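fyi for ur records
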Amino acid sequence: MLIGEVARRSGVSARMLRHYDSLGLVRPTGRTEAGYREYSREDIRRIFHIESLRSLGLSLREVGQALDNPEFAPSELVDDLVERTRERIAGETELLARLRRIGAVGPADWEDVLRIVALLQALGSESVGQRQRAALSSVEDVPVPVEALVEAALNETDPNVAGALRWALARTGDGGLALLAEGLGSPAAEVRKRAVESIARIPNGAATALLQESLTDPDVPVRRSAALALGARGVADAVPTLVEMVVEGTNDVDAADALTVLARDSALAEQIATRLVACLADGTMESSARRRLTQALAEIPGNTASHALADLSHDDDRAVALTATYIAKLRNAQ
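which gave:
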């Protein structure tokens, strides 16, 4: 079969068939009297084998090895192809995400596109300074893709940059809330905690509901971050976790401040005081924990807290007694 007919039947151009010939991949078995290439049935079968292997992503060199090297190990090459394909898909996925982010901002001209690209590159920079400057960029001067901000906030490990990213997200309103909610479902506790910290900066009911859901998170730091945010919003569900934080001495000052905010509700103030007093009555409680609980009673109004402080001023633990006496005097002087 002559080269033109082979090209028509196989779908491989005559030019590519000549290239295969020059590389030694497929050399026609014969020649006509006029010197034209003449392909046998076996030659055509080899052409189809080549095209099949090329469709898997093999280079022509790898195709030649696969067909001609008797020691060739297909499994190793397939594993390599799988890895290369994964890398290519990851690269294409990243490109697609970047294009979608740029498109979502709605750039007016190429100058806008270039500024957005520069911002996205800075958000992904290894330099802490560059990431922070990108987060603090004015949304008026450089439109910030919300999706990119959320991704950066959920992955940022530097506390200063993370704070700047949360500020930038808060300025966008609740546009990133749905994406942050997805972050709450991450298998990584650190990501869930960053999601909670970002949601805490968004002052609306939907954000509050997400924070309340996080009070049941299996990771303790996630629950505590949610409780601090909810305490500042006056949500009573946060009380048990906040009291636990006081007992264990983890961000206990912040937790006590949150309890103070919640205690502005007189009915809730009595509940908080009752819970603190119940913890103080635990005979196995360490002295340092009892002192923290006593200090937490200082800003809790109501009779329950006042009576507890009066009793604690005679406590067997001198440090607790002195603390309670001092706090009681301050309360009486007000």
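Residues 239 and 272 are 7 Å apart (CA to CA). thats all i got for now
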